[in-house]
Amino acid sequence: MKTNRWFPIMLIVGACTLSSLSITVAFSDDAAKPGHDHKAEKPSDAKIKAAMAKLPESDRSAAAAQRYCPMMDTVRLGAMGTPLKVLIDGKSVFVCCSGCKDDAVEHGKETLAKVAKLKKSAAAIAKLPTADQPLAETQLFCPIEEGSRLGSMGTPVKLMLDGKPVFLCCKGCEDSARENTKMTLAKVEEIKKENAKAGQHEGHDHKHGAADHEHKKGTATKK
Length: 223
Ligand SMILES: [Zn+2]
Ligand SMILES: [Zn+2]
Known about the structure:
Number of strands: 4
Shape: elongated
Strand content: 5-15%
Oligomer: single chain
Strand order of the largest sheet: 1-2
Number of helices: 9
Radius of gyration: 21 Å
Helix content: 40-55%
Distance between the termini: 50 Å
Order of helices and strands: HHHEEHHHEEHHH
Bound molecules: zinc ion
Mean pLDDT: 81
């Protein structure tokens, strides 16, 4: 019987197909989601909370720990509706909308690294006094060390410059921040404006605006 000879090979091929299938299946559950219907309005905390509450209970804490979309790192999970879960190397990752899903998968390794950073930052920001947390989150990046996310180097450092709160990624940035108060404050305003723009998350050209933060930093090496 000729066919018997090929049977073991067919089994192997079958197994491979199955394992890649399980990945595909995990992504395909939001097919019905409409494209980019998001409005430019700033999502309220209540809206985000409601969207997050729609996640299955088993996913909520992981999504809350991640807090931001790895593809749009200034967009809170829940701001675009219920976050979507994707599986990358067997790990659960949450993205803000269907428009961010394919990229998250395509650059799986980078996505996982980004998610780890986001979790670390969110945990560090959560160590700030409650009243400071929303302030730090409108800023999100250090005005001195460009592209350095607040919380990526431990609990952010708060300064008052000309009566305005400024957050820095670390103590090492404090001298530079105080050296030219005006420039520091201007940079903070610029960052906030950029964040607000990216936070609107309209269309698909948003990706690079937000990702720029990542690439400017000289120490960020990619293999
Ligand atoms: Zn998105
Ligand atoms: Zn710093």
